[in-house]
Amino acid sequence: MAWRWWALFAVVYLSSPQAAARHHRKALYPSANWIKRGAYSLINPTFLHSEEDTKLLFEILLAGMQIRGEERSLLIPDEELASLSSVKKLAVICEDVLPKKLSDIRRLMADLAQRRQPLSWQDFERTVLTLVYTSQMLPQISNPHQKEMWMETLVHLARALQRDIGAS
Questions:
Q1: N or C: which end of the chain has fewer CB within 10 A?
Q2: Cα–Cα distance between 32 and 17 in angstroms, integer?
Q3: Would you call 77 exposed, middle or buried from its count of C-beta atoms within 10 A (0-12, 13-18, 19+)?
């Protein structure tokens, strides 16, 4: 008889909006699950799958990779690196998944601040790339107020990554 009360309690609790909100995991990068016409056909794309991919990303960053805010936003000056087939996934992530507007990046920053569990490796990778994009935007901004907002966002993203590394 007692198990019926526990079952009833569990059903009522889990159907309440408060419990649903607690158990619902909000996607940090919702566009990673959208299929875009003409994009490299990937759902939830990731670039880093091995240590070699990590070394390749580091080499691409050292070569001067730039993530721009417009269409065809990934620029890799080294033609040999840019021609690698695995770089297509990186291009999709940078062009279609990463937030480019300050308001979207600040929403991400707020979502990261509320998280209590460690980031998935896909979200960690995307957050690092968002940090790279944010750092590349700073020199292009001349308005002091806008520059301060981008700088604050950059610091918060770096702290979120540092907190995540410390938690894992």
A1: N
A2: 26
A3: exposed
Chain-centre distance for alpha carbon 113: 13
User: Helix axis angle, 144-167 relative to 121-137, nearest 10°?
Assistant: 150
How many other CB atoms are there within 10 angstroms of residue 116's CB atom?
A: 5
pTM of the complete model beyond 0.90? no
User: In the structure encoding, which two tokens stand for residue 121, read together?
Assistant: 């490796």
The tens digit of pLDDT for each residue in 72-111 reads: 678 999 999 999 988 988 988 888 889 999 999 999 999 9
- Which tokens in the block code for residue 53? 């991919």
Going from the C-alpha of 33 to that of each of 28, 29, 98, 100, the distances in angstroms are 11, 8, 12, 17
pLDDT digits 0-9 by tens, 142-166: 999 999 999 999 999 999 999 988 8
Q: Give CA–CA dist 86/74, Å, rounded.
A: 13
